[in-house]
Structure formats: structure tokens, C-alpha cells
Predict the structure.
Amino acid sequence: MTELIVLAFQAVVAHRLRTFLSMIGIAIGVTSVVLLTSIGEGTRLYIVNQFSQFGTNLLAIAPGKAETLGIPGALGGTTHKLTIDDAEAIAKLPRVEATMPICFGTARVEAGNRGRSVFVYGVTPSAPIIWQWGVRVGSYWPSSDPRRRASMAVLGPKLKNELFDDQNPLGKFVRIGGTRFRVVGLMEPKGQLLGFDLDDSAYIPVASALKIFNTDEVNEIDVLFSHSSMVDTVIADIRSLLTERHRGKEDFTITSQAAMLDVFGNVMQVITASVSAIAAISLLVGAIGILTMMWISVGERTHEIGLIRSLGATRRQVQWLFLTEAAIISTLGGLAGLAFGLAVCALLRQAIPGLPIQTPTVYAVAAVVFSLATGIISGVAPANRAAALEPVTALRAE
Amino acid sequence: MTPMSLLKYSLASLSGNRLRTGLSLVGVMIGVAAVLVLTALGEGARRYVTDQFSSLGTNLLVVLPGKTETSGLVGFGGIPNDLTLLDAQAVARGTRAAERVAPLSMGTEEIEYRARRRQVAIIGTTAEYQPARQLVVEKGEFLPAGDWTRGSPVVVLGQKAAAELFGAESPVGKVIRVGEWRIRVIGVLARQGVKMGLDFDDIAIIPVATGMQMFNRSSLFRILVQTYAHADLEEAKKTVRSILTERHEEEDITVITQDAVLATFSSILRVLTLALAAIAAVSLSVAGIGIMNVMLVSVSERTREIGLLKALGVARGQILAVFLAEAGLISTIGGLLGLSLGWALVQILLQVFPALPARSPTWAVVAAFVTSVAVGLVFGILPARRATKLDPIEALSRR
């Protein structure tokens, strides 16, 4: 076995330039696969993190059933409303830790002579627990009946900077949709979620938001529950409770954070896999290159093959010799490609720190195994050709 | 040597080694075909989206309630000032460039006829919506023109909604239940298909005032403004914005042109297509390395032949030309084969997915072919130069 590898290595080294070129062919293919899967996987993890930063034991209930319109509730009215009462009823269910009715919309937030049109969220003081997102300075308004209005607001850090620069905004007043609110808190920076900049928003009591937006229904109810394994039971409980409350009609949609994550993860994986498949076309072309070179090599070494056969080597041994040679070329190429791909990933991460790049181990291993397999497959035909040679005829050949 | 005899010479030596020539051809062929198929897919997707947009009507402005300075997403959630029917009427009166204005309210509701029920999207609008969105009525008629603020209990059903509710029965003139309302069917739309995520076959269209009452909304969902000509869009956009800003005493609406949205989609898909083509083109460079390898072998095998040529006084330039021509021929023929393979694959694609207008854009065809030829010539340089550098005496003496 060792002898076989040594012999094959000698043949590889003897034709340095051409084996080097064959290796580069495979290496380019592996590099592009590694690079593209890294970007794909990085993006997937980025999105997963974006969602799970709000905790995974989270359910969102939206009005309307998403049968015809993809987004429930987002596109205007439904006849049956989700209300603050619904949220409170759900809060009494077993395994539900907290609920929060949310009413949001766009409004102008003004302070002094500065103003900014942003998203305004009507929430309850449970927001920091439910969203796992704390207050940096100050606090939320004191916990009380969500049906009661209060003229107090918490600002996102970016909105605060736009309105107040470096000044301390606590205790100052802002106008939101024509109503005066006293600033009682500043949120921690959170960043964007699906295009919504959560730092550039204002948070006010849900009842005040209902008044500003002149409506009596909430856009969403967020539910925090215990025991993530019980998610199906919790959803079933909520569904039967709400259906009963809504006169037997299921006119709402429950989305669990975990289910949403699954869908996103699956979509990204399919995209990554198909892009890598396209990159793997290069591997195929590289394999054809190895096949060509091995074929030529058998032709050139007919004499040598005749010699070792007449010295007692079996057909099988000759076959293995050439297979090993092809495998060595492709595996070395694969390893070189992997190393180069990882190096490029590291460089990219240095150059553009924000870019999500993460090499999935499975794909990296798969790329090398795949290149090994590629070599063996492309070596089969030349190896069989070598093994089929008659020693006497082969020896006579020049 | 004339170009003709150069070609003959190269062809002869290529056909002398059929297998390796064939394999090198296949490498280039795969690369070119991959570029063609992938660009055809990308371009198909782009044209599909473009068609979807233009089937929604042209020269359209969309007015959405709400405005943010922070992100592009608007039209979600509530707003302090409603976008009302009066606003829509003011826009219709005050915008000279507007050919027609259609107010829109929207929601989902269950429709019911005898024992059959179905949850559908409800669009509350006016008679102007039909020409603006280019909807075709198959049976009966569309919403009657008249005072927007007067609702009447009539409905126009989408093809699928009508079929699900009525089966073979004729729906026109029948009374159905929409939520808590009893409403008479006055028309059925012809098949429209899914446009921008909304299935126009599974909808019910009612007068806008009825819709706002049904959903208990004081604000419209959108206002559509269609201008006479494409050139009027910018002016109309300004006029609409100033009318509504004056009425609301602040700018709390967003006006987008359908063209702007389309242009964004189109350019995103173009970039994607380009990226896919580039990834596929990497395989062309791998094929080039294969050609280089084969040519190197060829040079070393033909050392004696080269020595002979040199001894006979053939100039270096001509020897270079011989080997370059060989490499170029491999890649050119491979490129041509790749073009035909790619074309065939696209035809199959069109058969399998007739909805996707897949067609390789001309730039991709030209670029793929030019790249394949260039690949052969570039990767042929090294072996060809190696041939010219051989010393004639040594070359001849080698066996």
C-alpha cells in the first residue's frame, strides 16, 4: 500500500508542470465552492441571529388569515379585530409568561424645531422582557392597565441622536402625531430587523398609540411562553381560545419564531446549495482535465507498464497505481483549493468586517471528499486502459 | 504559411489525437453552455417580473399613507392623519396630468354562497380601477361609475373565487354574503393570474365606500394615479404631494412610481444574472488550464517535428502561430459546441417551464463565445512559446 503511494507520488513528481496544472484546475473549483458556501452560510447565520436576538420562545399573532394575501394583517383591514382584551385573555393561559398587544404606524416625532418621520410602536412595559431588549437610560413607564393612556415615551438611540444630539433627553418633551409625550427612557442599540430600523423608532403606551392612529384594534400580539418544547400545545391553546372569543371564526394567524427561523434557514440552504452546484461545474471541467492527462500519461508510459507487468505486477496492481495517481492529484488540488478558499475568506473578513462569512465544516469536508472522488472517477478509464495492456506488446512499444 | 494552410496543419494534428482533443473540447463546451443556461434563467426571471409589472398597467403613481425617513418600507401600520376619500377626490380634481384616479381600500373577508365559503382578498375601489389595472370583465359588468362616497351592495368576483363559490352556476345577479353583508354579484373577471403576489383570480371587488364601511376604516389603503403619458409622471408626483401636504398640513404620505420599483427589481436581477454568469465562467478558466496542459504535452511530444521545422528555416513567429492556432481551434470549436448545447438546453427549459421567458441575452452569447476563444489563445501562449524556444539541434537529436 505504502509502496503504491510512493510509486504514484514519484510519477506525480516526475511530471511536475502538468500535475501542477491539473491540480490548479481542481483547486479553482474547490476554492469557488468554499467561498460561495461560506458567504451563503454566513448570511444564513446572520439572519438567524437577527431573529433569535428576540428570543425563540416567542409567538406573534396577527389579525386576518394568510390564505390569499401572503402577509396577514399588513394589507389593511379585517372585520374581526385583535384587541387588548384578547391579549389579556391569552395571558391567563397556562405556560404563557407574558403577552403584549402592539399597535404601530408611522408618525412624525418632533422636539423643539426638529422633527423626523419614523415608526412609532405602541407597546407595554413588558417589552424589555418579551423582546429581550433592555433600556439603556431611564426606564419604561410604570406597569399599569394597558387600556390607560400615558404621556410617556421611550426613544430608540438613533432617533434620540437625530432629535437631541448629545443632550440628555430624559424629562424633555416630544410631540408625536400632535400629542405631547415626556421622554422617560432610551433603548439599547439594536440595529435593523428586516429593513425596520428599530433604533430609529419611538415606543409609547399602546392605548396612546391607538388614540394617535385613531383605531381600536392592535396590529399584533406578541406572546412569550415557557418550555420551548411545548410550542405546539401553546399554539393550540391560543387558537382555541381566540376562535372562541371571535365567535367561532379563525380570523387570525399565529407565527412562531422557531417556525419562521426554519423557513428562512431552509430557503438559504437551498440557495447556497444551488450556487455551490453551479461553482461545482468547474470541478467537473477540472475532472475532465485529469482524465485527459492520465490518458496521455498511460500512452506515454506503455513501455514502463509492460516492464512492471513482466516483473510480476498484476493487472489489479497496475490499475491501482494509476487510480492512486489520479486520486493524489485531485486530493492535493482539493486541499490547496480549500486552503486558498479559507485564506480568501479570512482576507475578506479582515477587509470588510461587516460581511457575514462563515465556512460550514460540512461543506469544507465535502469539497475535499468530492475532489478525491472526482480524481478516482476520472482515473478509472485510464487505469483500465493501463491494466488491459498485454505485457509483451507493451514492452515492444516505444 | 498562409492562414489556410496553418488551419489545415493544426486541424491535422488535432485529429491525430482525437480523444484528448475531444476531452478538451468538452471542457470548454460545458463552460459556455453553463453561462448560456444561467444567463437565460436570470434574464427569464427579469423579463417575467417586468411583464408582471406592465400587466398591472403603465404610467402609474401609487400614493401610500405614512412616511418614514429611516427605511424604504411604508404602508404598514397606522397613521395620525387618514388618507381619505376626500383626499383622493382632491387629487383627482387638482392633478392636471392625471388621466384617472382610483382610491383603494383592502382587506380579507369570507364570502359565502349557500353552503360554500371562501376567504378572499377584498378590494374596495371605483370604476376607474378597471382601466388603470387593465382588468378584463368576462361576464356582467364592472363597478358602475358615479359618486365615490356612495357605497352600493355590488361585487365583481375574480375567476377562481366565482368558480369555487358557484361551480357551473352563473354568478351574475346572485346575492352572496361578504362578512356580515349581503351583496349582489354584478360581474366576473376574466382570468388574470397572480400579479405581484396578489392572485387577481381570487378576489372580490366592491365599491370603495362599501369597503371602508365593511372594514370600519376611515383611511384608504392606496390611491392609484394614472397619468396620460410617461413624461407626466414626475410632474404629477409633485402635484399630488403638494395637494396632500397642504390638506394634511404636513407631509405624511409617500408617492412612488411603479417605474422606480420596476427599475430597482430589474437592476437587482441584472446583477444576479451577471454574478451567476461569472461563477459559471470560472469553469471556462479551468477548461483553459486543461487546454494548456494538453498543448504542453503536445509540444513535448512533437519536439523532433519542431526541430525539423526550425532546421528547415521556419520562422519563430510561424511556429508560435501553429501552436496558438491549435489551442485557439480547440477553444473555438468547443465554444461553438457549447453555444449549440446551451441553446438546446434553453429550448428544453422553455418546454418544461413555459411560464418563464428564458432567453440568453445577446451580450451573454457574445461574451461566452469571445471568452472561450480568448481562453484558448491566452492559455496557448505558454506552450507555444515553449515550442519556439527549443534549440533545433537538441530537438532533432532527442528521440
